[in-house]
Amino acid sequence: MGVRNQTLVVEFVFLGFSGIPNSHLYLFLPFLAIYLITVLGNLMIFILIQLDSSLQTPMYYFLSHLSCLDICISSVTVPKMLVNFFSHQQTITYNQCMAQMFFLMSFTGTETTLLAVMAFDRYAAICKPLHYSHLMNSEVCTILAFATWIWGSLNATLHTVLTTKLSFCGVNQIHHIFCDVPPLVGIACNDVHINEMVIHIASIFMGGSPFLFTILSYCFILSSILKIRSTAGKRKAFSTCASHLIVVIILFGTALVNYNRPSAGYSLETDTLISTMYCIITPMLNPLIYSLRNKEVNGALKKVVRSQRNFKNHHHTIN
Predict the structure, then answer these.
(1) Helices (H), the chain
(2) What are the structural domain ranges in the chain?
(3) Tens digit of pLDDT for each residue in 278-313?
(4) Which of 4, 88, 151, 242 is deepest in the core (most CB within 10 A)?
């Protein structure tokens, strides 16, 4: 019976951009630009970390995972939007919707947990410098990184299984720009109390707990930094944390609003703006924040550019 109810809806229609006339003309190029900047920016950081020996540290190892996640999050949502901008209706099949929701929940859940791990890495480096190499050795870093991916996947599996149990009774219009748990729960026609309870509990474990852990880590970090006597030492310690802290504030701020907003009182336009910030703009900002504020990343980029230039000059001289 449950399977029969689910087949009543074979596709969903996104209403997120329905208020914008001729949206394909105004939105395709900006979203394409955002997607390209996101992919190329994060790919650049990932490649730099692999190529430059000075970036072979725990902090940059975790940053390479963050870059992969940002590419994945953007790739789950934006390409489908770009295709839909040239359709009369922005649609997605039922199976595609469930897959999009699973991967989106998996990658975003992994990213929030990874940011907490990165905060612990900064805590160990600044507050426990004598024990840092032992606390954050390569084996520990590998285990922590892949544990975040597994944790995110388990969270996504739980939500996806519960969502596939829902019946939609012919209602197929989603007040959103991609498939996510809250908007799908909002249009279900059967009892959703368990789904809503799981959403709030999961938001505590996947959002609230990592955020509080991150803030607590930075309280200890700040306390240690204030004890440093030299101004240069304080500035260097702050600079290693500033980029990560900015990313944390942006991501957790938009994520908590996205999954814990009241069921009433938000307009479709507000929901669209929050979702765009959370899953589309934030992955683009991360490489910009890290590359603009990080001297080591900038240095590695300059070395790669310089080596490429030297190679071209050498090749030209030979010819």
Answers:
(1) 2-6, 23-51, 58-84, 94-127, 132-135, 138-164, 181-187, 193-203, 209-226, 231-260, 268-276, 282-293, 295-318
(2) 9-318
(3) 788 888 888 887 766 666 776 776 776 676 666 555
(4) 151
